[in-house]
Amino acid sequence: MILSASDPGYRQCTVSIMDNIADPDIRFDENGVCNYYHEYKAAEATNVLKGEAGSKKLNALISKIKQSGAGKKYDCLIGLSGGVDSTYVAYLIKQHGLRPLAVHFDNGWNSELAVMNIENIVKKLNIDLYTLVVDWEEFKDIQLAYLKASVVDIEVVSDHAIFATMYKLAKEKKIGYIISGTNVVTEHIMPPGWIYSKMDFANLKDIHRQFGSRKIKTYPTFDFKKYLYYSSLLRLTPISILNYIDYRKEEAKRVISRELSWRDYGGKHYESRFTKFYQAYILPEKFKMDKRKAHLSTLICSEQISRAQALEELKEPLYETQELKVDREFVLKKLGLTEEQFDEIMHRPPRSHLEFKSDRRLKEKYMNMLKRTQRFRAFLKKL
Predict the structure, then answer these.
(1) How far is Cα 326 from Cα 348, in angstroms, rounded to an integer?
(2) Whether the predicted pLDDT of 306 surpasses 90
(3) Overall pTM surpassing 0.85 (yes/no)
(4) What domains lie within the chain, and their CATH numbers?
(5) Which of 171, 238, 252, 336 has the fewest CB neighbours in a 10 Å radius?
């Protein structure tokens, strides 16, 4: 049974706005502070560098990337969705003189504003753009399979293909660094039960096998063996560059709006019409999950907004009535679902991703092997 805010057992963190609605993993200390706050502070202390330390680390990385890419057309890869983080990454690395190849995944759900933002970014920054246009019928079949399976993380379908495309391009063009907009200070907090591994191809394949109707032929895939090959043998290095600057979300928006004519979507990842409908309707309606709590809580922990501001924002409706009607009609029509079919899917009980096949055990064995051989590998590295 899922709690509501009016239930006697309801609890909310006294620092962030995380609560125990649809989150069995949340814990509270004696002061009512949740585990996500403590986990955020630990991640910030370990991974975030600001001021002189951040500048020193960033400049060292930039020099290393330039040296690695000497004589090549590109020295790094960046993903470009048109959102705040990826746009600011593009702006930042151009300021530092890097030569990126931007990669965009067109899954058929881009908003018109997203298309406009991306066009402005690549034009004003003078960077090359590689756009993967997925086979829509094949992609739609995988998305529908996830909907029918009633698992929580439907965004795996897009994210998996993005990762697969990025790593494949890095190999083809001999690029050693992938720079992402992933960062601690604006997106670290997320309950583990609200998302799933984007790289678990065994899980994706099994869900699609049970609920899909078409063969996967052109959809980009990336299994664990490929991950080992790319990361260990080809030594592709992912870098979260925003962890080495004083990254403030609102200031980043002002910069990219002024310099790149960027326009706001009104929500995190709302550059995709499907993602907007998924986060603002499917998740809260079916799974009772409101991702705004996690996004806003991270900003509270990084002292970019106050708890009072976050609580006020949380009072705003996820959808205005007419906007929801328009988006619902659009999504259902594009997916080829009737109202009755969609309602039946929405009423199916949620299922765990782990009810389907997974490569999790293979990953755990690999990580255990790395731990056991850590000293030996360090010795070999010295030699």
Answers:
(1) 24
(2) yes
(3) yes
(4) 49-287+319-355 (3.40.50)
(5) 336
